[in-house]
Structure formats: structure tokens, C-alpha cells
Design brief:
The chain is mainly alpha-helical. Helices cover 49% and strands 0% of the residues. It has one domain.
């Protein structure tokens, strides 16, 4: 069910101003009224959860740009949706095949360092030159993604004991 930004703010226990800041810094579309889809909400929830686990916003922004670039190389942006980079957020199937922030299903486990290059989600005719011939290297971007993803995973694992301790302390408060 679609919601307003105010409803999402309440669900995430964050001020609307904080969410507006995320929209600005992550270059997300600002919608009017109850037009925020569950996928959009899921993306914001993911960012809030990762920030709660002490993943820096700079790291998340960098990963966000890498994921969007990778999806552009795979022509996912050509689906015609104004929120194409958010439309997979919230999906729960095939978790290991999905990117962390966009949650896009890559068709194979992301850690396998394999992509189905040549996928084109567009109805338009293919470009004259392949992406790699134009200097775009999806595998290089995937490797950069995997490095950041691995670092985030390590950071989360090291932060979990502190979060658990804070939760236990907070329950006694």
C-alpha cells in the first residue's frame, strides 16, 4: 500500500526532515501525497537500518552510485519507470542474487563475480557499440561493488555485539 512521506517517517521513527535529506543526498524522486510505493519505503528502511548499524552514509552513497551504474550497464533503467532503481526493493526471494541497496536480482549469486551481460530490459533497438567498447566495464564495477559490500558485511558483523548490548541495556532502562 502506498504511503505519504509522513507515514513512512512515523514507521521508521525518523523525522520527515531526515527522510527529505536522504532523498536529496541519494537523488531520489520527491513524490506528492500517498505516492510512495512499498519498494520506495523498503529502500529508505534499508538505509535507516544500515545507518543504525554504523555504516557511514558516504559508503552507502558510494555503493548506491555503483549499483545504479551497474544497472545502467545492464539496461535496467530502460524499463520506463521513474523509480527504476527502487522497483526491486523489498523483494525477498533469491537474497544472494540481489544487490544490497537497489535489491535488483542479477540472475546469479552476486558474489560469484558473474553477470548476465547483454541483458537488455529495453524495448528499444540495441546500441551501435557494446558497452565495453564505449569504455563501460560492468565487471570492473561489479568488482568494486563486491569490495564495498564485503567491507559493509564486516562492519555489520563487528557492530552487532554493540547493538545487542545496547538493546539489552535499553530494555533495562
Amino acid at each position: 500500500m502506498n504511503k505519504t512521506l509522513g507515514e513512512i517517517a512515523k514507521d521508521l521513527n525518523r523525522p520527515i526532515l531526515y527522510l527529505r535529506g536522504l532523498q536529496s543526498r541519494f537523488e531520489l524522486p520527491v513524490l506528492e501525497g500517498a505516492l510512495y510505493t512499498p519498494a520506495y519505503q523498503s529502500f529508505l528502511r534499508t538505509i535507516v537500518h544500515l545507518r543504525t548499524l554504523s555504516i557511514s552514509e558516504e559508503t552507502l552513497q558510494h555503493l548506491w552510485h555503483i549499483e545504479k551504474k551497474l544497472l545502467q550497464l545492464l539496461h535496467v533503467e530502460s524499463t520506463g519507470s521513474p523509480t527504476w532503481f527502487l522497483d526491486s526493493c523489498g523483494a525477498t526471494s533469491y537474497r544472494k542474487r540481489r544487490l544490497l541497496l537497489t535489491n535488483h536480482d542479477c540472475g546469479v549469486e552476486v558474489s560469484a563475480k558473474v553477470l548476465q551481460l547483454g541483458l537488455n530490459f529495453s524495448d528499444s533497438p540495441p546500441e551501435l557499440f557494446a558497452g565495453s567498447e564505449m569504455g563501460e566495464d560492468a565487471m570492473r564495477i561489479l568488482n568494486e561493488y563486491l569490495k564495498i559490500h564485503s567491507r559493509i558485511g564486516s562492519d555489520i558483523k563487528s557492530e552487532l555485539p554493540r547493538v545487542a548490548a545496547a538493546l539489552q541495556w535499553g530494555q533495562q532502562f
